[in-house]
Amino acid sequence: MPLTLKSSRRTAVSVAAAVLLLAPVTGCAADDPPRPSVRTGPSTPRPPESPRAPAPTRLTVPSLGIDSALLRLGLNADGTVEVPPASKGMTAGWYAGGAVPGEPGAAVLIGHNDTRFGKAVFHDLHAIARGADITVSDGGGAEAHFTVTGTETVSKSSFPTRKVYGATDERVLRLITCDGGFDAAGHPVDNLIVYAKLR
């Protein structure tokens, strides 16, 4: 059953408020087991059972040779966002608590740079260029084409949560992976964020 305008607004406000609790991607070290990639607060709502549009199923970035199925990522029992398992390091995931790619809002795709099994799906993401095409398709064959507007490498201690996950009426996409050197525990210290907008 479609949401009424009143309930849609209430849901949008709840998601916008909860999204401010999201934090950086972690757990991309090659020798570590996968850990939650994005921390959320206990009040973060569970992802919707039925997205407003068909769920995305495939990601392609022709300039980097990326062609990946998309896993649906939800929340773990502790309120953290799931990441693709290390055994599926060459597969990216769509955070279903955000926007559906191509719909209004920020859609977020998360992928590993490396796992204990080796090179992963977003290993070469640092080489993406402004203006590059990113295509996200759904099971019905519909495609949403995005153009890269910029990239940003940030310290995990100063992750720009509002900029990445905040509410927006624009149809935008963010790709997130780990980046940079490693701390004493062997965890990457930075995140690489790719920003793109619908063409």
UniProtKB/TrEMBL annotation:
Residues 1-29 form the signal peptide. It comes from the Bacteria. Keywords: Hydrolase, Signal. CDD domains: Sortase_F. Residues 44-54 have a biased composition (Pro residues). Residues 29-60 are annotated as: Disordered. InterPro entries: Sortase (IPR005754), Sortase_dom-sf (IPR023365), Sortase_F (IPR042001). This is Class F sortase.
